[in-house]
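RECORD TYPE: inverse folding
INPUT: structure tokens
STRUCTURE:
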């Protein structure tokens, strides 16, 4: 459904005045006709319309409709939709009702996972283990292991693990699908943001645009040089002269950038460049508000992990995503204490996670990469855990790197080609790569929607894209002022053109 935009353009379905009560009536009619799916969506739409019109004072009828949407989502076994509805329903529920809803969500998750080959008994055993962990300690860190697709797309939706995923899956404290909110996010991934190379292949350095300096740094360290004959001959000569078997292992590497998405994307390209099995870890929050450590392995290139020692067996890569958002164990601890009181006080899942990270850091055959934003703090616990650590700052793209990005976008999206590239390079100064792609995506979507409404092709306009860039620039920056002036100048020119046309008609 296309809602009204800032210019008061009519919505695509011309139903901008439909009230929540009318949606409730339609939902009841759909249910009476046997269309539970449509009824569920209409009940949810009724609540969202009521929330938009009434704010926090949502009418009781709309709340009742939201409860009906929940019941239908559960009846249809639509787990993602059920979680989406639960997030909106939770503020109106008692503690007892929240507990019952959480139990229903768990049952839906178990039902879904059974479809992927996991037996009900194994799943229930894992659920019981989770409950024991939660009862034992507050703020428990629970681990689940999923798979992520070969494309390594970011933000990417991991695919549920199968029973055949290997011994690593047996170490998980839980194994669930992503939440409805995550699902919605993944469906809304930037259309203009290139996430992979050739279809079906992993993202590698050749697919990146605007990362020339950091790619050069990694190649100096030997990453991505396995097919370079000259480099390999250099390594063989150094091995012989120094009397060693191979090059020294890389330190753990922390990639920091203005937008953590830039660092995440570069790490995924590095994983693809190396081409060896990888595990990704990131901290999330579940619907109960607990910190959850999600652990994912590639579906088609899984690393060998010893279930007894929680350690890599052979070469591999460990990726710690968005480390600045991770929650560290409470208390002042150091790496030396990891085998003592700290490890004893952690839950089973947290102990396994810490053991896996530490063993990866100590293993010369395993690369350890982490990402974070430049302007946020990382708990010292993780610095200690990853030592020896090298920090790589991925600075904002240069003029030339921004030009390459805008050129790539214009190649991929013909409707952007009418905008002066020099202006785009100048007005996007100091922005992260992710900001450029997001601004382009938003402008493309807006132009597409306007084309649907007008039933004719409307390209991306200069003022449209400049407006999106201005939203990314600090209000006190020279770039923001220049963008504002450029948009006003273009607007004034359009008014003069309109005035000339009106005068011509008058004559």
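DESIGNED SEQUENCE:
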């Amino acid at each position: 459904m296309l809602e009204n935009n800032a210019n008061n353009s009519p919505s695509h379905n011309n139903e901008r005045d439909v009230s929540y009560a009318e949606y409730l009536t339609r939902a009841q009619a759909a249910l009476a006709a046997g269309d539970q799916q449509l009824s569920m969506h209409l009940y949810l739409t009724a609540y969202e319309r009521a929330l938009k019109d009434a704010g926090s004072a949502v009418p009781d009828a709309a709340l009742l409709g939201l409860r009906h949407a929940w019941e239908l989502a559960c009846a249809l076994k639509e787990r993602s939709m059920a979680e989406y509805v639960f997030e909106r329903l939770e503020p109106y529920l008692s503690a007892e009702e929240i507990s019952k809803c959480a139990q229903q969500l768990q049952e839906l998750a178990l039902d879904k996972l059974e479809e992927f080959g996991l037996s009900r008994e194994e799943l229930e055993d894992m659920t019981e283990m989770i409950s024991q962990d939660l009862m034992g300690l507050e703020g428990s860190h629970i681990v689940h292991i999923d798979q992520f697709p070969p494309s390594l797309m970011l933000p990417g939706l991991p695919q549920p693990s199968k029973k055949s995923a290997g011994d690593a899956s047996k170490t998980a404290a839980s194994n669930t699908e992503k939440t409805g909110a995550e699902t919605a996010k993944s469906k809304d991934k930037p259309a203009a943001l290139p996430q992979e190379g050739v279809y079906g292949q992993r993202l590698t350095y050749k697919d990146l645009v605007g990362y020339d300096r950091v790619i050069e740094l990694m190649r100096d360290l030997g990453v991505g040089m396995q097919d370079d004959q000259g480099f390999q001959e250099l390594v063989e000569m150094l091995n012989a002269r120094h009397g060693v078997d191979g090059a020294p292992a890389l330190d753990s590497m922390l990639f920091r950038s203005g937008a953590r998405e830039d660092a995440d994307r570069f790490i995924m390209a590095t994983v693809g460049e190396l081409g060896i099995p990888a595990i990704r870890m990131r901290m999330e929050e579940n619907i109960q508000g607990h910190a959850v450590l999600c652990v994912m392995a590639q579906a088609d290139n899984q690393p060998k992990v010893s279930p007894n020692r929680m350690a890599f067996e052979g070469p591999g890569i460990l990726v710690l995503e968005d480390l600045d958002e991770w929650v560290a164990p409470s208390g002042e601890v150091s790496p030396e204490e990891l085998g003592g009181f700290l490890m004893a006080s952690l839950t089973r899942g947290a102990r396994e996670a810490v053991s896996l990270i530490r063993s990866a850091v100590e293993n010369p055959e395993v690369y350890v990469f982490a990402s974070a934003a430049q302007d946020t703090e990382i708990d010292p616990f993780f610095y200690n855990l990853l030592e020896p650590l090298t920090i790589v700052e991925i600075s904002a793209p240069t003029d030339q790197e921004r030009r390459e990005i805008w050129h790539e976008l214009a190649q991929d999206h013909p409707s952007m080609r009418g905008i002066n590239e020099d202006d785009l390079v100048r007005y996007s100064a100091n922005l992260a790569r992710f900001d450029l792609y997001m601004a382009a995506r938003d402008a493309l979507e807006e132009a597409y929607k306007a084309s649907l409404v007008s039933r004719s092709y409307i390209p991306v306009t200069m003022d449209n894209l400049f407006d999106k860039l201005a939203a990314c620039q600090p209000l006190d920056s020279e770039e923001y002022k220049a963008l504002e002036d450029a948009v006003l100048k273009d607007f004034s020119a359009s008014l003069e053109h309109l005035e000339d046309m009106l005068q011509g008609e008058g004559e």
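NOTES: The longest strand covers residues 278-285.
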